[in-house]
């Protein structure tokens, strides 16, 4: 090995090891290094490059720089923006740093250049060279990152040391390994080290490749499937078969063109179909689009049924399907007649108001039947969100149209009779008032362009005949109420119930149970018994249920005991239904002191409300017992005050309250009662008790009272009258202001009861108290 000493500028390199014969470029930014370059350029353009032991050191000292480096020729320098210089160098020979000559303004060192001798000295060396070549070939193949022609260049190299250096410069190795190779001056030793490293690297590459193949195999499989699918598609196309997606798209297209949609709806449908096409069959979005298209296609945009405006046949249908309800039927016929005349069914919406089970829904159905329209029913009970009427926007997950559009889909025609049940049971919350949305639905001026949030299209509701039902008028939002024509359907008398049961319910239930009417027969007395003792309601719903229940039990018995037929009489009903559940207050047999029959309105219709008052020595306390509601307690107190203020008028000692206690008691029936109509009853009972004058046993009364003795009107007169009638009362005292309601009372009842109109409590007392005592 030849050795020469040279003095050269040094540049410490960070993270790079330069081998002799290697060509590379690197960037120089450090002040000292730039000066070193400049110095080198002024001389022989030679520089000594040695690696730093740790790359991060900014100002390396002697001990931070490896002693062995490479003497290089600078081939080119390029100024880069920001005081950086890019230097292209070519390694010339290995160099060993022997001395630092200067450290400022740049590192100047004395270097011993070490040049390898040419030629192969011995067989061992030859063997090493061959092995290295072989392994490097393999390395090139496996790594794939070294240009193949490198091999050709290497073929020509016959200096083993140089060969080692060139190969070393090509390997991707850790810096310390590279430095180690550079540090090895002895050629044979260097070759040996390089061979070890190469064998190891080749090994690693082989393992890497194995792993790589596995991963690749997986990817290949996916690609293969894709490829096969594409091929399949091509084959199917070739054979004229369409794939599922295409079939589906075609199906929709066909449906859309057949559906006779209005122009804008069709456009929208085709637009969505286009979106479905571009979304592909399996995306979440395409599911949404499909549902939407189904909705559009299912709606009766243009389907219509022919109206039957033949008033006579409409009347027949109504009569056939419902007993009684004369005024309701009349109103409906009038309504239809007007519609027929004006040739449109626009106009106020009918609202049937009455207690549950009086046939509001079923008469609605009959009207549809009579008119030959499809019937849909939607309950508004519990609806409190505008979106329930008008739908959710499609952007909501799982959005669906509102109930109106839902109903229209069920209706299957654009002119159904749409029954909106329980319109008084809607409420509102922070999500908007459903009543507002309903206003639009019911408004004939607006509803031809009803817009559902989900549908995003206008739907024409102007041909729909809306009928609403409610239990009471109180809770119907005012603006809605203004748009409706109210038809009251009040409760039935026991006679009416009897007719309804006999003429409708029994037959209906027998039919529902598919049993011949000669197998199970219900006697009149049994029906009456069920009405009186097993039901308490204004309508006939639980009557219907009880009838159904006895029929079921009869069928069971027929089956079980092999009977031919069963006659359901009172005794049978009692064994089937158990002990009687309800008994009614009956009017007392004789006149009594302090006992007055009042009347109240409950959720189940009218009921009698007896009030009892007793007087006992005491200190003027007023005691109230029985299940009196708050309003009734107020009535009792007001009545008491009135009596104290007017005691003398009725022959009662002025200061009675100083030494007497009063106890007012309202015996609780099966149903809780409350309401502002017990004032007159309380006063009458108190006065009777204090004065000792008896109250007529066949008189019942209702009315609220002011402190000056005026009698105020009450509600539910018909229901109350029915209750009094049922209890055997013959005289009913009512507020004078309720006179107008008398015509609503069924004739049978009006014929049997003597109504007395009272505007002042005096009139009530005059008629209720037994005279001459
Ligand atoms: P609502 O809607 O007023 O609560 P429904 O219409 O549900 O009452 O009536 C309950 C049941 O009673 C139905 O089976 C109905 O046919 C029957 N019904 C009610 N009133 C009559 C009637 N006047 N004639 C015949 N059946 C009736």
TrEMBL record:
Give a yes or no for keyword Heme in this entry. no
Q: What is its EC number?
A: 3.4.21.53
Q: Which CDD domains does the annotation name?
A: RecA-like_Lon (cd19500)
What broad class of enzyme is this? hydrolase
Q: Where does ATP bind?
A: 354-361
Show where the Lon N-terminal domain sits: 8-202
Q: Where located? A: Cytoplasm
Q: Where are the transmembrane segments?
A: none
Q: Which PROSITE patterns match?
A: LON_N, LON_PROTEOLYTIC, LON_SER
Question: Reaction catalysed?
Answer: Hydrolysis of proteins in presence of ATP
Q: Cross-referenced Pfam families, in alphabetical order?
A: AAA (PF00004), Lon_C (PF05362), Lon_lid (PF22667), LON_substr_bdg (PF02190)
Q: How does it assemble?
A: Homohexamer. Organized in a ring with a central cavity.
This one is known as Lon protease
Q: What is the lineage of its organism?
A: Bacteria, Bacillati, Bacillota, Clostridia, Eubacteriales
Gene (name only): lon
